[in-house]
Design a protein that fits this description.
The protein is mainly α. The protein has two domains: 93 residues, no CATH class; 159 residues, no CATH class. It is built from twelve helices and no strands. It is globular. The C terminus is likely disordered.
Length: 316
């Protein structure tokens, strides 16, 4: 029976994914009138204000990171700037469901990168799932086929930057506040995009544009908060697969807001990527359970040996 914590965590994760997808939808609407980096910069500034307000309330804004944390925070910033630029460039030019489907390969890419660069052990089953999942990405992208758009490659590049961002985050020390890292990342992204935007034609804005940007920043902030809440309750292996509910939101919003109906190849590729990602979560959960059971058994043996050795030591 599913625990109440797992149910709450799954609900929080699904709500977070809705927030992220609604953010993407607002940005895609803004792109009809504003330049890419202008929109990224303004949204980033609004998001920075929201995070700063929450950080001040929780006394997490002012922090002096260690040299090691500063290094990994810098890498996280590079990953966030690259992923935001690449993904939103793809979203600017292609259907929201297609772009969203491609980045669902992130869990698979993180598993592969962790094995290649961090020495984590990955068995043949997960390697096979990664290979099949990336084949699903190729079905979505369809290089060389009719209907192929080079902007799909921007979404693929975004996956690489997201892996850099997430693996760098894994290396933070426990004392580094999450809100501080989020604020630094959001502000750095806004400033970078603003610097690039000065080299482009700054488009005039009206209240509709401002409203969409505020909504985008609000939904993104909302997604961050609920994703954190989701990971703090229940089991990660149960909650993580609910990340893929973002595909449902992307398909529905693509149809309702933009009139974008995914073709059979996109749906097939997305199903493969999601299926392999869920299998990877399942395998990692099973391996963690086995490792925990092995540790408990080893501890029990050591305890039993200590108890049996005690009387003999006393007799000696």
């Amino acid at each position: 029976m599913v625990s109440s914590d797992n149910l709450r965590g799954a609900f929080f994760m699904a709500v977070a994914m809705a927030g992220f997808c609604l953010n993407d939808t607002m940005m895609k609407l803004v792109f009809a009138d504003l330049e890419l980096f202008q929109a990224i910069s303004l949204r980033g500034l609004l998001l920075s204000v929201l995070i700063a307000i929450l950080s001040i309330r929780r006394n997490k804004l002012f922090y002096r990171p260690s040299r090691q944390d500063s290094l990994f925070l810098s890498l996280r910033v590079v990953g966030e700037i690259g992923s935001a630029t690449c993904f939103l460039s793809a979203l600017y030019h292609m259907p929201i469901a297609n772009a969203t489907a491609i980045i669902q390969a992130i869990p698979l890419a993180i598993t592969l990168a962790a094995a290649l660069f961090m020495g984590e052990r990955v068995g043949w089953r997960r390697y096979s799932a990664i290979a099949v999942g990336f084949a699903g990405v190729m079905i979505i992208v369809r290089p060389g086929a009719e209907g192929f758009t080079a902007y799909s490659l921007w979404a693929v590049a975004a996956v690489g930057f997201m892996v850099l961002r997430d693996l760098s985050t894994r290396r933070f020390s426990p004392g580094l506040p999450s809100l501080y890292a989020a604020f630094v990342t959001a502000l750095a992204t806004a400033l970078f995009a603003g610097a690039v935007a000065t080299t482009q034609d700054w488009q005039p804005m009206n209240l509709d544009h401002l409203g969409l940007l505020c909504a985008s920043a609000g939904f993104l902030f909302f997604g961050y908060l609920f994703s954190i809440k989701a990971m703090r309750v229940g089991e990660v292996a149960v909650i993580s697969p609910f990340r893929y509910t973002i595909m449902i939101w992307a398909i529905v919003l693509g149809i309702v807001v933009f009139g974008e109906i995914p073709d059979i190849w996109t749906l097939t590729g997305a199903a493969i990527v999601v299926g392999m990602g869920m299998y990877t979560f399942y395998r990692e959960h099973r391996l963690m359970q086995r490792a925990a059971a092995h540790d408990i058994a080893a501890a029990s043996v050591q305890t039993a040996e200590g108890v049996s050795a005690g009387p003999r030591s006393a007799r000696q």
